[in-house]
Structures are given as structure tokens and as C-alpha cells.
Amino acid sequence: MHEFVTNLSVYREAIRQTFYIVIVSVVAGGVLGLFLGLVLYATRPGNLLAGRAVFLTVNVLVNVVRPVPFVIFLTAIQPLMLHTIGTTIGTNAVTLALSLSAAFAISRIVEQNLLTVDPGVVEAARAAGARPVGILLTVLVPEALGPLILGYTFVFVAVVDMSAQAGLFGGGGLGDFAITYGSQRYNWPVVYITVATIIVIVQAGQFLGNWLARRALRR
Amino acid sequence: MPADSQPTSAPEGAHVRFEHVGKTFPGKGRRAAPHVALDDVTLEIRRGEVFGVIGHSGAGKSTLVRLVNGLETPTTGRVHVGPHELTALSESGRREVRRDIGMIFQQFNLFRSRTVAGNVAYPLKVAGVRRPERDRRVARLLDFVGLLDRAHDHPERLSGGQKQRVGIARALATEPSLLLADEATSALDPETTGEVLALLRQVNRDLGVTVVIITHELDVIRSVADRVAVLDSGRVAETGSVYEVFARPQTPAAARFVATALRDRPTAQTLARLRARHPGRLITVRVRDQAGFQTKLARTFLDHQVAADIVFGGISELQERPVGSLTFELTGPDGSVDAALEALWADGVDLVEEEA
Question: Is B56 helix (H, G, I), strand (E, B) or coil?
Fold first, then answer.
């Protein structure tokens, strides 16, 4: 146990890195995913901005990226990492990969939840003279907000999970810490403490998501 | 809303005009046949009237009303609303026209994410009306529909009738000159239906708004509409004042509607029962809005020594005029019944003999 105490500052730094990776990925991936999801919903045949070419392109793109396991995705986009941030290792490289991966997952969640919104309210907004983009942002997103928050929470948990996997690639954060200071040195308390920390982060995120969704749904 | 919201610039006469409008939807699925929703529809809705469109489900009513505010575009023909030819405008042009047209729906279509006040404010936000003015108008509209005290509630806490009143307030937010009601009372119970129809009447009378009511319920047309179009399989079977169409339907489609709604002609089953009890000849006479009409009938029968027994029928009121029909059993000496019928026909009485 005293060995863990000597690593305390490294542990703190790992937590800080995990928060950095997860928050940046969820926010950046969340915004990009929202955009892609809105495009998928709006360009679907018969919808507000129906456009076959755009719908098919985005749909196929999402379908191609989504089934790729994250560790493989991480290596597959190394050329993009080199091009944009100049390196394929480290926290920023991992964050870029996670943001993109999260964006594609979120795009489907957004699309699915918007599809459950009653088309009648879209018609009411159109009848009021609203523009398609206005309807997307001021009617559809607010109407689907509760399920959207739950969907984003789901992705948050997945991102925490993937950020730990990224530790294998020197991405920093708690996963990296558990491997380097824990399992590779047979220091099991470090592994268990790291696991417990991740559980606490996930629980806290889930709790916050549930609470926000309940408020949005007024239940 | 103040009187100055009434349309003043637009000319009297036609508010909405359909010229040979057709709408065909592509069939769903690769081989499905296209669906003809409307076929060569020509009609005119006058400024300031309550115009009813009646038809069975699938007759094309909803398509028709969506052509008025450009939510759908016709396949053929032209649609005019006020000074605009909708069919010649781009989508952004149609959006502008839509802001002068309110719409209410069968399922209300309120925004669940917004409060009652937020729902009413939405079209004003879309139209770019700023905060203090928007709040003032929302309060005035909610007061008009009697829901000022529910401004901060969410729609799920309201009853069906209250939801529709919010729908009406939202539809009137931008002070439109035209209000479209798509089966607006079909999800409501009879009492609430009456309240909502009374409110639509008030919108028409007090605010001078032209109202178009789409419904499959003849009672709705009967209680609020001035004129009516009967829609049958995508075609206008008949257009006219509600009284004309009800009292003297000219087409089989209109007659069927009137018959099912007024239940004035005996049905086949009723007729069979009547016949079992009444051996004489059965005739059904359509009641006329004419002083001494029934005295005239009675005198004719008496003159021909025909005994006339009322065995079925009813008279009700429509636009403050009597409407209905009476079924008589006629018995008398040989030839006298025929003579009496001849005399009534000669007099222009609208009657049919129920076939044996």
C-alpha cells in the first residue's frame, strides 16, 4: 500500500488526464455527432431537407466507421493524427481518436431519438412558417432532450471505457496508470484503486445524466 | 386581439382559390400504384366565412388543407391564397404566406418541451417578434382562449379541450387572416367539441378570420360552417351553402352523407321492420322550409281520401331553418294513393316511394 502512496502524484495526474480526455472527447464528439445525427435525420427521404445523396453518403460513412473496434480505429487514423497534431501517441492523439469515435456513435443516437419525435410537432412548426434548420434546433432537439441526455450519458460511459484502453498506446490517464504502475509491477492495490476510481467516475456521470434527463422529461 | 389585426388591405371575395388542383402521391414500394389523393378540384373559399370540407377518411381532406398553406404542393393545377399564387412561389415564399395562416390539428401537436405560454410564443419567435411585445401578445391570446392561469403549465397537464384551445391560441399568434382546422374536434368528447366549435365561431365573428374546417362529422359542419364542400374519393362532389347541401343534396355522395348524418331516410333494416308492421305503401317526403308545408300535405291526402300515418322521420333545424324528412304509410281506395302522389309531385314536393 505504501508503494501506492509514493505514486500519489502520478495517480492525481492520471485522473486529471482521464478527465481531460473524456471531457474534450464527449464535448467535441458530442457537437460533431449532433451535427451528423441532424444531417442523417433531416436528409432522410421524406424529411425536412430530404436529400438522397447526402443521406446515403453520411449513412454509409457512419456504418463503415462504427463497427471498427476502437483499438484498431486508433491505429487506422494515425495518418490523420500525424497530419493534424503531429504525433500518434500521447493524450491529444488519443483524444482526437476518441472524439471521432464518439461522434459516430452519437450520430446514430441523435438520429434514432429524433425519429421518435411525433412528426405532428414538426408539421405544426412548418405551419408556423419556421425554417428547416430552425425546426431542427428549436423543436426537434428540445422535444427529444430527455432521451438525448440519456444517450449522451451512455456515450460518456463508453468513452471512459475507451480512454482506459487508450492507455495501451501511451495515451495517459487512469488506464495507462493501472498498466504501468499496477499490472506490470504486480502491484494489485494500484489496479484495484484505479478500477474503483473509474467506477466512481462512471457512477457519478450516470447519476448526473439520469438526474438531468428526469428534469428534461419532468418525471 | 385588437380590431386592427383584421385584414383590411385584401379585397372582398375569394380568400382561397383552387383551380383544377390534382395531387398524386407516389406509391410506397417499388411496384405500388401511385395514389391519387385529389383529382381536378376547383373551389373558392370566401373571405370571412367558415368553410367546411367534409368527406370520409381517405377522401383527400387532409391533403386539401395542406395545399392551402403549402405544406404539400399540388401535382397539377393552381392554388391562390389572397394575392399570392402559392404554386408559383418558392419554399421560402410559401413560408412567408404561412405566417398569415394558422393551423390546428386533430392531435393538437403541441410542443411537449414548452409551456403553454412557450407554445403560443413559438410562432412569434419564428416571426422575429421581440420579448416584451411577445409576452404581451401571448398573455392576450391566452386570455382570449381562457387559459391565462395555465400559462406556465406544460401541455401534458391539460385536458383535450384545453390543449386544443392552446392550439388555437398558437395558431392565432401571428394574427393570421386564415385559420385551418384539420379534424380539430375529432379527438374530443361531444361537450368539449361544442366549446371548441364555439371558440372557432368567435374567432371568425370577432376577429374576422376566415376559417376552413376539415371534418368527417356532419354535426361539426352543421353547427359552424356557412358553406360546405363534399369531398368524395378526391373529387368535389358538391359545394354550396350548408342549408342547400343538407336540404337538397344534388349528388349521391352528398345524399349519402346527409342520410347517414341526419338519419332521416329509414335504413334497409328499419324499412324491413316498418314493412312488417305497416302493409300500406311507404313514401318519404323531404321537409321544406315553406310556411304551411305540412298542412298542404295533409290537405292533399284528405282530398284523395288517403289515410296517411307518420311511421318514421324527424325534423331538425339547420342554420335556423327546418330540415328533415317524414315517412308516411299511405292507405286508401284503389288508385287514390297514386292520384295523391301525382298531385304532390305536380306541386313540386320532394318525395320518394320506398321500394317494396
Answer: coil
Give the global pTM. 0.82
Residue B36 is which amino acid? V
**Total count of domains within chain A:** 1
- Of A91-100, A134-143, A171-180, A210-219, give the range with the top mean pLDDT: A134-143
**DSSP state string for A40-108:** HHHHSTTSTT--HHHHHHHHHHHHHHTTS-HHHHHHHTHHHHHHHHS-SSSHHHHHHHHHHHHHHHHHH
Identify from B30, B97, B108, B112 which residue to disrupt to test chain A contact, counting A C-beta atoms within 10 A and taking the largest count: B112
Q: Which of A126, A139, A218 sits opposite B111 (nearest CB)?
A: A139
Q: How far are the Cα atoms of A210, B253, B304, B307, B347 from residue B329, in angstroms, in the given order?
A: 74, 27, 14, 8, 20
Report yes or no: B246 at the A interface, CB cutoff 8 Å: no
A51 lies within 8 A of chain B by CB: no
Q: Can you state the angle between helices A52-65 and A8-43, rounded to 10 degrees?
A: 150
Contacts of B156 in chain A (CB under 8 A): 218
CATH of the domain at A136: 1.10.3720.10
Q: What is the pLDDT of residues B199-257, one digit of tens each?
A: 999 999 999 999 999 999 888 998 899 999 999 989 999 999 988 888 778 888 888 77
Q: Could you tell me the domains of chain B?
A: 3-255 (3.40.50.300), 263-353 (3.30.70.260)
ipTM: 0.86
Spell out the residues 6+ positions from residue B167 whose beta carbon is closer than 8 angstroms to its own.
Answer: B104, B105, B108, B109, B110, B184
Query: Is the minimum CB–CB distance between B174 and chain A shorter than 8 Å?
Result: yes
CB A98 within 8 Å of CB A21: yes
Cell 384545453, residue located: B162
The boundaries of the domain holding residue A151 are 2-217
The string of DSSP codes covering B264-316 is: -SPPHHHHHHHHHH--SEEEEEE--S-TTHHHHHHHHHHHTT-EEEEEEEEEE
Say how many CB pairs under 8 Å bridge A and B: 64
Which residues on B lie below 8 Å from A218 (Cβ)?
154, 156
- Cell 403549402 sits on residue: B70
Torsion angle, CA of B87/B92/B95/B97, rounded to 10 degrees? -50
Q: 435525420: which residue's cell?
A: A41
Judge whether B84 is closer than 8 Å to chain A, CB to CB: no
CB B228 within 8 A of CB B52: yes
